[in-house]
Design brief:
Largest sheet: 3 strands, antiparallel
Number of strands: 5
Helix content: 10-25%
Distance between the termini: 25 Å
Mean pLDDT: 85
Order of helices and strands: HEEEEEH
Length: about 70
């Protein structure tokens, strides 16, 4: 949580993985940190502009290893 609050900043790129689709979503942080208890179960937020998606199977072995092990469950 410390890094999310204090180190991430507008303009930073972010990556998240969806194991059911086997895709990585790529985005850019476009807001400062904000706290809300009104929108969802996630109280700590930053707005993201989603740029695109990459299929995990299209990545090189080295890239997959760098991003972490795909553990389908």
């Amino acid at each position: 949580m410390y890094r999310f609050l204090n180190e991430f900043k507008k303009g930073d790129c972010v990556l998240t993985y969806n194991p059911s689709e086997r895709t990585y979503s790529i985005g850019e942080i476009v807001s400062d940190y904000k706290f809300t208890d009104q929108l969802s179960e996630y109280f700590h937020m930053r707005d993201i502009k989603w740029i695109g998606k990459v299929q995990r199977d299209d990545l090189s072995t080295s890239a997959k290893n760098t991003l972490g092990v795909d553990n389908p469950g």
